[in-house]
Each structure stands twice: as structure tokens, then as C-alpha cells.
């Protein structure tokens, strides 16, 4: 059951090559889906264009529910890419896992805390950047002392807590899903009977994981917009 | 159970993964913005403006149609009024003409009657004149006869008076 990660060191940096592979695969798939769907754009959308337009409207709805469109419009690309990338990443680990020897190669890239925390930190850093950019350094800084100065340590902790929860929630959900999938598949090692019995919970859990993967992608995008709105909005 | 502790990370942080994920995501975002989201949002905006235009056009068309309809109704009303006026005029004219015809007929009848009366009168005049002539010749004849018959003066006078009276009554 236990798999090692194919870690190699290159230019003083540790690379988990499975992550590198899966990030590339996810990115490629998202890119292909989005580009193929928008190859033949028409005023009367059909098929994939319809689907992507629905996604765009969905993300627009998320943004509109957290901030006004005047400030939120610029985050549409970010939200769309996040949603699609995380969703595809979550789905990648579901149908199968590929291991060579003891090294696990095919899995969800989001089942690795390094990846999810990278995304989370990126989002939080972006929120600080846009906070300073849109409100000015003074207004941005004063946010840390509201409603009064005593709150400063709490606000500081909040930033780190936000980052951690944002990244670890996604990681935990997807990783746990894959662990359980692995365990259920592992039943077949215990004999044919156990394997056949294990198929049913396996199917159920895969279905549930699709649901969880979609929900987590939505939650990540939603919270991204909430954090951004928190930093960017003038009044709250 | 090593892999259960914060995933598959084995000691230390995978700096390479972080870097790679960051780069991959940023590149993906930029590529998608250029090749997918940009055109998609472009066409969505285009469609939005198209729909807006269409709705506006429909609105103007509807307003125009309403105006036309109102004008048509107005014109129809006017035409009806005109038709009624024409009929009224015709009726009035007919009455006037009828009246005129009747008047003319009445005049003509009167004229004919007058003429007839005048004719009758003149005929009578003529008849009287003829009668007078006749009476004159008759009286001459009678006178000659009476003279021939030898009459006394008184009876002759009476005779002439009688004749004259007779002639006067006949007139």
C-alpha cells in the first residue's frame, strides 16, 4: 500500500517528479479542454462552448456574490483557471493510480500539500498585492488594526490560518479520498471474494469523490474570491 | 506510514514542486487568457450587445407599428366621416333636386292650365264675335223680313228688343 515519491534533486531543488508529471498533465488537459471548447466560437453556442460559458457565468456568480463587479472583474481569469485546474486535478487521481515499483507516479497533484499550499499562498499573496494596489498602502495597513489595535495579532494569525486552511482543506479531502480508494482496491489483494465485495464500495466512493472533487474546486475558488474581496473591498 | 504524514513529502520541502506548480499555473493562466477566456468572453460580450441591440430594435419596431396602427385608425375614422358626409350631401342634394323637379312640374302644370284657360277664353271671345256677326246679319235679315211683313211700330220695337235680349243672353 505504501508508496514512495519519486524525488530527485536538480539544481539544489527537490523535485517530486510525479508532481511535476501530474501538474503538467493537469495543465495540459485544462488547456486542451478550454482551447478545444473555444475553437469554433459562435453567437449560438452549442456543446462545449455552452458548457464553458456556463462555467464562466458560474465563476462570475461566485465573484459577484463576494464583491462588486467593478473590482471583481479582473479576477475572473484567475477564478476560472483555478476552478478548472483544481477540478481536473482532483479528477485525475480517481480512475486509477499508477505506480512503478514503489514509486507512485499517477495521482491527483492536489493530493500533495506542497501543491495545494503553493496555490493557497499564491492566492493569499495575490490578495495582499491587490489590497495594496487597489486601496493604497495606508488603507491596507490600517485594516490590520480594525476594529481596534488589540486585534493586530489576531489579524496576523488569521492570514496564516487562512493560508493553511485553504491549502490543507483541499489537500486533506483529495488525499483522504485517494487513500480510501487505495484501501478498497487493496481488498483485491486479500482474495477474489473480498475483491468482488470491495467493488461496490469502490464505485460508491469514486462517485462520492467526484462530488467531493467538484465541491472542493468550488470551495477553493469561492474562498479565493472571499479573501480577495476581504482585502480589496472598501467597506465591510 | 511515512506517506501519511503530510502526504508524500519525505523530509524537507519540495522547493522544485512549489516552483514548478507556480510557474505551471501562471503559464496556464496566461495561455488560457489569451487562447480561451479572452475569445470566449469576447463572444459573450458580443452576444450580449447583439441581444441588447435586438431588443432595442424590437422595441422601436413595436413603437413604430403602434404609431402606424394609430395613424391607420385615424385615417379609417376620417374616411368614414368623409363617406358619411358624402352620403349626407348626396341625400340633401337629392332632396333639393326632387323639390326643384316638383316645383318645375308644378309650374309647368300651372302654365299649361293658364294656357288652356287662355285658349278657352280666346275661343269664347272668338265664338262671341262670330255670334255677334251672325246676330247682326240675322237681325238685318229679320229686320228685312219684318219690314217686308208690314209691322206696326210697336210690335217692331218689341221684336227688336226681344232679339237683342236673346243675343245678349247668349253671349
Automatic annotation (TrEMBL), chain A:
It is found in: Cell membrane; Membrane. It comes from the Bacteria. Keywords: ATP synthesis, Cell membrane, CF(0), Hydrogen ion transport, Ion transport, Membrane, Transmembrane, Transmembrane helix, Transport. SUPFAM superfamilies: F1F0 ATP synthase subunit A. Key component of the proton channel; it plays a direct role in the translocation of protons across the membrane. Belongs to the ATPase A chain family. This is ATP synthase subunit a. It comes from Fictibacillus terranigra. The gene is atpB.
TrEMBL record, chain B:
It is a single-pass membrane protein. Belongs to the ATPase B chain family. It comes from the Bacteria. Residues 55-93 form a coiled coil. Pfam families: ATP-synt_B (PF00430). It is found in: Cell membrane; Endomembrane system. Its main location: membrane. F-type ATPases have 2 components, F(1) - the catalytic core - and F(0) - the membrane proton channel. F(1) has five subunits: alpha(3), beta(3), gamma(1), delta(1), epsilon(1). F(0) has three main subunits: a(1), b(2) and c(10-14). The alpha and beta chains form an alternating ring which encloses part of the gamma chain. F(1) is attached to F(0) by a central stalk formed by the gamma and epsilon chains, while a peripheral stalk is formed by the delta and b chains. InterPro entries: ATP_synth_B-like_membr_sf, ATP_synth_b/b'su_bac/chlpt, ATP_synth_F0_bsu_bac, ATP_synthase_B_chain. The chain crosses the membrane at residues 18-37. The keyword Transmembrane helix applies. It comes from Fictibacillus terranigra. CDD domains: ATP-synt_Fo_b (cd06503). This is ATP synthase subunit b. F(1)F(0) ATP synthase produces ATP from ADP in the presence of a proton or sodium gradient. F-type ATPases consist of two structural domains, F(1) containing the extramembraneous catalytic core and F(0) containing the membrane proton channel, linked together by a central stalk and a peripheral stalk. During catalysis, ATP synthesis in the catalytic domain of F(1) is coupled via a rotary mechanism of the central stalk subunits to proton translocation. Component of the F(0) channel, it forms part of the peripheral stalk, linking F(1) to F(0). Keywords: ATP synthesis, Cell membrane, CF(0), Coiled coil, Hydrogen ion transport, Ion transport, Membrane, Transmembrane, Transmembrane helix, Transport. Gene3D superfamilies: 6.10.250.1580.
Amino acid at each position: 500500500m505504501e508508496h514512495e515519491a519519486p524525488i530527485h534533486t536538480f539544481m539544489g531543488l527537490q523535485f517530486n517528479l510525479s508532481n511535476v508529471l501530474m501538474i503538467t498533465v493537469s495543465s495540459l488537459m485544462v488547456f486542451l479542454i478550454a482551447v478545444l471548447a473555444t475553437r469554433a466560437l459562435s453567437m449560438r453556442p452549442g456543446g462545449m462552448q455552452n458548457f464553458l460559458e456556463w462555467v464562466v457565468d458560474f465563476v462570475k456568480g461566485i465573484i459577484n456574490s463576494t464583491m462588486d463587479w467593478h473590482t471583481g472583474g479582473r479576477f475572473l481569469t484567475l477564478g476560472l483557471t483555478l476552478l478548472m485546474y483544481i477540478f481536473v486535478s482532483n479528477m485525475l487521481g480517481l480512475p486509477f493510480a499508477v505506480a512503478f515499483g514503489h514509486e507512485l507516479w499517477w495521482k491527483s497533484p492536489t493530493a500533495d500539500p506542497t501543491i495545494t499550499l503553493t496555490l493557497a499562498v499564491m492566492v493569499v499573496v495575490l490578495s495582499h498585492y491587490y489590497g495594496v494596489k487597489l486601496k493604497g498602502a495606508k488603507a491596507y495597513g490600517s485594516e490590520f488594526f480594525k476594529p481596534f489595535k488589540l486585534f493586530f495579532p489576531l489579524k496576523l494569525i488569521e492570514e496564516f490560518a487562512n493560508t493553511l486552511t485553504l491549502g490543507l482543506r483541499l489537500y486533506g479531502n483529495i488525499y483522504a479520498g485517494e487513500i480510501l480508494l487505495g484501501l478498497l482496491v487493496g481488498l483485491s489483494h486479500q482474495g477474489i471474494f473480498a475483491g468482488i465485495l470491495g467493488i461496490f464500495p469502490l464505485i460508491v466512493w469514486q462517485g462520492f469523490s467526484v462530488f467531493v472533487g467538484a465541491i472542493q474546486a468550488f470551495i477553493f475558488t469561492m474562498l479565493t474570491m472571499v479573501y480577495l474581496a476581504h482585502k480589496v473591498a472598501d467597506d465591510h | 506510514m511515512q506517506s501519511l504524514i503530510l502526504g508524500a513529502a519525505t523530509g524537507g520541502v519540495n522547493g522544485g514542486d512549489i516552483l514548478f506548480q507556480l510557474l505551471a499555473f501562471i503559464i496556464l493562466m496566461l495561455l488560457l487568457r489569451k487562447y480561451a477566456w479572452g475569445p470566449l468572453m469576447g463572444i459573450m460580450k458580443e452576444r450580449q450587445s447583439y441581444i441588447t441591440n435586438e431588443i432595442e430594435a424590437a422595441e422601436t419596431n413595436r413603437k413604430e407599428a403602434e404609431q402606424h396602427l394609430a395613424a391607420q385608425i385615424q385615417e379609417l375614422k376620417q374616411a368614414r366621416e368623409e363617406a358619411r358626409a358624402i352620403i349626407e350631401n348626396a341625400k340633401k342634394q337629392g332632396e333639393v333636386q326632387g323639390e326643384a323637379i316638383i316645383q318645375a312640374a308644378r309650374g309647368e302644370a300651372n302654365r299649361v292650365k293658364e294656357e288652356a284657360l287662355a285658349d278657352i277664353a280666346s275661343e269664347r271671345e272668338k265664338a262671341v264675335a262670330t255670334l255677334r256677326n251672325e246676330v247682326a246679319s240675322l237681325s238685318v235679315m229679320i229686320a228685312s223680313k219684318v219690314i217686308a211683313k208690314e209691322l206696326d211700330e210697336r210690335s217692331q220695337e218689341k221684336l227688336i228688343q226681344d232679339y237683342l235680349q236673346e243675343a245678349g243672353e247668349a253671349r
